[in-house]
Amino acid sequence: MSDCTHDCSSCSADCASRDLMAPANAKSSIKRVIAVISGKGGVGKSTVTASLAAAMAKRGHKVAVLDADITGPSIPKAFGVHGQATGSEAGLYPMVSKTGIQVMSTNLLLPNETDPVIWRGPVISSVVQQFWTDVLWNCDYLFVDMPPGTGDVPLTVFQSLPVD
């Protein structure tokens, strides 16, 4: 196909332009991305994510957690992080726990952190991608706390973030 329009939805060719990876914020520095996922809810993904983050921070690494469980965020509570995240023209600043772990979660952007979020899949996926592209991360390890299942968010993470 010589006249590629880069509209992959109407094309059957297997080409390099199908790379869906989203670029991290240009001012971010992220060395490794680790996703914690399970097909079932209530199995301890957030606990494992928080424990891994705490262990790596204790070993002296710069650590961050992206809470991709948009409709059931629990990471800020696990780290005792409250309030609203701020930003500038450069991007959003993650909140930082007392132990130095960077955190970004939906409830850190809401007027009231306990307000429910009732959004459809495409909006949720877009927020997760924005947490990658718009947040100013500076870490050796970015842990991604995933929602349960195999829906839109896990697909977005594995297609658009360079998961190690």
Provide structural commentary.
Helices cover 25% and strands 18% of the residues. It has helices at residues 45-58, 75-79, 121-133, 152-160, and strands at 29-36, 63-67, 87-88, 91-92, 95-96, 102-104, 138-145. The mean pLDDT is 90.
Topology:
Blueprint: E1 29-36, H1 45-58, E2 63-67, H2 75-79, E3 87-88, E4 91-92, E5 95-96, E6 102-104, H3 121-133, E7 138-145, H4 152-160
Parallel strand pairs: 1-7, 2-6, 2-7
Antiparallel strand pairs: 3-4, 5-6
Helix pairs in contact: 3-4
Task: Give descriptors for this structure.
alpha/beta, two-stranded antiparallel sheet, 5-stranded mixed β-sheet, 164 residues, 18% strand, single chain
Topology, number of strands: 7
Could you state the order of secondary-structure elements as H and E? EHEHEEEEHEH
| Straight-line N-to-C gap | 33 Å
Separate helix tally: 4
> What value does the Rg take, in angstroms?
16 Å
How large a portion of the residues is in β-strands, by DSSP E?
15-25%
Query: What's the shape?
Result: globular
Strand order of the main beta sheet, please?
A: 1-7-2-6-5
What structural class results from the helix and strand content? alpha/beta
Poorly predicted tracts of residues? none
Mean pLDDT over the full residue set: 90
DSSP helix fraction: 25-40%
- The oligomeric status of these chains comes to single chain
Q: Largest beta sheet, briefly?
A: 5 strands, mixed
Give a short overview.
Helix 3 (121-133) packs parallel to helix 4. This protein is of the alpha/beta class and 164 residues long.
